[in-house]
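Today's session is about reading a structure prediction critically. Students often jump straight to the picture, but the first step is always the sequence itself: look for stretches that repeat, for charged clusters, for runs of hydrophobic residues. Only then move on to the predicted structure, which in these notes is written as discrete structure tokens rather than atom positions. Here is the chain we will use throughout the hour.
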Amino acid sequence: MRLTQIRYHFKGPLVLQAVLFLWVFSCGSLTEAALIKTLSGTVAKVDLDNRRVHVDFRHPATGEMQEKIFQIRDRTGIGGVPSLADFSIRDAISIDYEENEEGLLVAHYIKKVQLTGPPPGLENFRGF
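Below is the predicted structure for this chain, in token form.
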């Protein structure tokens, strides 16, 4: 088989590869991945009407208390409690979220965290 015959034989897949490359390159959602962040804090307010949770947390760099408001969607996973209505003020939570194009903080997963003390027998341990 000559080289020219081989080149024409594979012409179809090369065209298909070029079209696929242009389609992937032109789709912004395929080339940009969402940045998922995690925040731990306490519940300040649960707004069931607007499906929002207000969370207080201590900023790690400055040490000051701040509040962030997270939008809860139908796809948002909830753990540690049966539903959004079961979160109480001052519950410790961990929340995975992303900031969308409009600047809203959209929750992907929110979970009530059970805070525990030291293991039994180590209440008075001060180190070696």
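Discussion point for the tutorial: The radius of gyration is 25 Å.
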